[in-house]
């Protein structure tokens, strides 16, 4: 992203409360959803999701992430200690246990969303995952990237959510809420004090959704960003 | 900090460009300044600085940090990999090398600020440091706490500055700029893409100072915060 660009918003498409009853019993057109820790083999999907997000935000000219640059900067620390990614997978068949994803730091979480109509996913093949599903039709539907931040007033870490994205055809089904809740739940589990992210001030639907999730919107604070040439000018700075 | 509280602003008292010529040759009333990595033994001073900052922001009721809670949550990772603190020390005598602070990850940086008048520091005894100064009159004048963040668009880490604080009697002498520049320089050195922080929208002096430092102010973005009871409600959340 270039100097003047805003950061990618979490959940650019807010997840409205889902009118379809949810539960663990499949009915109608069940959609099986799973959240698990990302694995280095997920990078091609994560890369595509990031670029879809950039297009959605009309900032694709500023998105220079490549699979190689993501691979070399992510997965450098154990989960939750630094940059951490949850991947959201969906399937029309139940997920089965898969050794590759059976991470003790975060055992995968599943739920069933019962839909009135089946979902037509035009990008299913692009996002097909090897998640170990009976029938083998699982695909990646979204992700959340977060990392620890710190509050000196609380003297506690928290989590900052950099990105939260659900692919268009899977929105408004409670899946963004599922991703955000997973981060919040993990924060509480670790005794952390806050979960924070940013939203565009004109995105009233997203703001309403976040407030329903319990978040406060801090109206007075502005982000300051030093990047590009302005940052590089400090390379030889005489302090 | 409580649920609705804003985060502590970096540099609540902006450092105006210093009219006093600076350099390495002491003249007039020289003030020797040094930036170094914080050490666990600095916690009592850092704790006092955090509370001074909270008073300055009129948010002291929300500052529950104690020396013990700071000690147990900071210094858990090598410098720059997670929460990192630079301490700013000042002295009327030159700093000498001190084995305790001779950290290979960040060798201390010093400069001389030549002042027309000497500084009267009412809290000198409270902030006295064992920094190894000829004459032994060094004290802690400020700090900056920062940690890595991540941009998916750049596929690069950056630094987020949570706090930047200079004690009142040492403001407007270029010391806040020195702290911010030290973080920016370290970011460039590590190949990072951004340095970010937040500012209150009505703090026009701080905004002007940050813009002079090369930062862009992102006007459209708002911080969302989930904390306190609203966060703890997720402890048993059914995703």
TrEMBL record, chains A, B:
Residues 85-239 form the N-acetyltransferase domain. The keyword Nucleotide-binding does not apply. Keywords: Acyltransferase, Transferase. Residues 1-29 are annotated as: Disordered. Residues 1-15 have a biased composition (Pro residues). InterPro entries: Acyl_CoA_acyltransferase, Diverse_Substrate_AcTransf, GNAT_dom. This is Probable acetyltransferase NATA1-like. It comes from Prunus mume (Japanese apricot). The lineage of its organism: Eukaryota, Viridiplantae, Streptophyta, Embryophyta, Tracheophyta. The gene is LOC103332352.
């Amino acid at each position: 992203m270039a100097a003047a660009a805003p950061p990618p918003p979490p959940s650019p498409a807010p997840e409205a409360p889902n009118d379809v009853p949810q539960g663990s019993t499949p009915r109608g057109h069940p959609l099986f959803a799973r959240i698990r820790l990302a694995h280095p083999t997920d990078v091609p999907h994560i890369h595509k999701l990031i670029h879809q997000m950039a297009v959605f935000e009309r900032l694709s000219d500023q998105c220079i992430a490549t699979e190689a640059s993501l691979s070399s900067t992510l997965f450098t620390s154990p989960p939750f200690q630094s940059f951490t990614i949850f991947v959201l997978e969906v399937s029309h068949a139940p997920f089965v246990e898969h050794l590759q994803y059976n991470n003790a730091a975060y055992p995968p979480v599943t739920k069933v969303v019962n839909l009135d109509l089946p979902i037509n996913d035009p990008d299913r093949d692009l996002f097909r995952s090897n998640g170990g599903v009976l029938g083998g039709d699982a695909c990646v539907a979204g992700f959340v990237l977060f990392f620890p931040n710190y509050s000196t007033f609380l003297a506690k870490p928290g989590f900052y959510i950099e990105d939260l994205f659900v692919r268009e055809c899977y929105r408004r089904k409670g899946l963004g809420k599922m991703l955000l809740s997973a981060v919040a739940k993990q924060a509480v589990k670790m005794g952390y004090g806050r979960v924070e992210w940013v939203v565009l001030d004109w995105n009233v639907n997203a703001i309403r959704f976040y407030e329903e999730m319990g978040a406060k919107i801090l109206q007075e604070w502005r982000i300051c960003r030093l990047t590009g040439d302005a940052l590089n000018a400090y390379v030889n700075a005489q302090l």
